[in-house]
DNA sequence: GGATTGTTTGTTGTCTACAGTGTACCGGTG
DNA sequence: CACCGGTACACTGTAGACAACAAACAATCC
C-alpha cells in the first residue's frame, strides 16, 4: 500500500466544485467589471435562470458576496450591488497603504530566495505588459505583484485582509492603473531592492510612498484635475 | 402630512429579522464560547432541529460564518468549526496591534466630545466591573472600549477590519483578559488622555504598547510560563 | 386631476423532497 | 484473521413548492 501509485492525495479524483462557488465567481467578476452596476437589484430568480441553476446556490453566493462587501442584502427587498462612495474609496486606500506598508516591512524580514525570484518574474511580466501597451495585463500584473509582496510577509491574516481590501480597491483604481504604468514599475523595482537587502525600513518607506501615490492619483482623477497619474 | 404622528421613520414597524441572522448569532456565540469545539463537525440537519428551523437558514448562516473564518466548509463533507493555531493567534494579534495602533492615532485626530464622553463612560464601566470581580463583564467592557476607539478613527473600513480581527482574537485571549484586568484599564486611561489631547503620536505609542502587552501575555499563557498577565 | 383603496404581479425567505456521495458495518472468502 | 465487496444509513447540494411581503397598476372616490 505505501508504494501504490494511487496513494498520493494529488491523484485523488477531484470532486465537483459546488455550484455556489461558480455562481460566486461569475457574479463577482460581473460586479468588478461593472457589468452589474452599483445599486443594481440582483434578482435571485433571474440570476438563477441566466446561470442555469436553481435559486439556492445563487442565494448562497449572494450571502458570501454580502459578507465580503460586494453586495448589500436588504431583508425582504433583496440583494443590491454595493454602491461605493468616495469616502469609502479613500478609507480603503488608506487601509491598503497601512496593510501593504506593514507587509513590505515583514517581507524584507521574512523573504526567501524563491519568493524574490518570483517577485522579479512578476516585475518582468509587468514591464513587458507596459511596453506592449496591454493595459489589462498591466492592471493584472500590478495586482499579482502586490499580492506576492503581501504573501512574502508570512502573515496569513495580514495577507487575507490585504486581499480583501485589494479586491475592493480594484473598483476604484483600475482606470488609474492604466495611466503611466511605467512609473509605478520603477517604484516596484525599488521595493524589490529593499526587500532583497532585508531593509525593512526602506521597504516600508517605498511602499508607503507608492500606495500614497495611488491615493493621491485617485483623488486627482476623481476631481478631474489631471491625467498626471503618479502610479499604482 | 409633515406633522403626522406616524411620519417619523423611528415609528416604523420593524420587519422580522430573517431566521438566518438569528441562526448566525446563535452559532457564533456557541463557537466563541467554545460550546462548539474547534474541529467539530456542524451537521446542518442537527443544528436545524436544535434551533427549530429548516436547513436553509442554517446553510446561509454557515456560509457567512465560513466567509468570516469561524467555520471551514468542505464541499461534500460539511461544515467544521475552524481550528485556530498558535501561529494564527500570533498573526491575529500582530494585525490587531497594527490596526488598533493606527486607529488610536486617527481617533486622536478625529475625536469628538461625545465620543470622548462615551469612551470615559466605557472606562468607568470597565473599572467598576474589575472592582466587582465580574470577570465576564470585564471581558465585554474591554471589547466595547476597544471598538469605540476604533470607531473614533472615522475610518469605517478600518473599523470593519478591526472588528473582524477582534472577534477572532477573542477566542484566544478571553482567558487572558480575566487576569489582572486592572492594569489594562490603567493603560486605557493613558490612551483616553492622549486622544483627548489630540496627541496622535502618544495615542499610537500607548496603543502599540498595550496591544503588544496582550500579545506577550498570550504567549506566556500558552507556554504556561506564568500568570503575570500584563493586560489586554 | 389627485388621492385612496383594492388587486395583481414579482420577489424573498423558508420548508420539503430528491439525488448523489461518503462512511460505517456486515457477510463472505482466502 | 485480514481483506474485499455490497448494503444501509447519514449527510450534503440542489431543486421545487409555498407563504408572506413589497411594489406596481388599475379602479374608484372626492
Listing every helix as H and every strand as E from the N terminus to the C terminus, the arrangement of chain A reads HEHHEEHHHHHH
CATH superfamily of the largest domain in chain A: GntR ligand-binding domain-like
User: What is the CATH third-level topology name of the largest domain in chain A?
Assistant: Four Helix Bundle (Hemerythrin (Met), subunit A)
Strand content of chain A: under 5%
Uncertain runs of chain A are: 1-11, 226-232
- Overall CATH class of the largest domain in chain A: Mainly Alpha
Organism (chains A, B): Allonocardiopsis opalescens
InterPro entries (chains A, B): GntR_C, TF_FadR/GntR_C, Tscrpt_reg_HTH_GntR, WH-like_DNA-bd_sf, WH_DNA-bd_sf
Protein name (chains A, B): GntR family transcriptional regulator
GO molecular function, one term (chains A, B): DNA-binding transcription factor activity
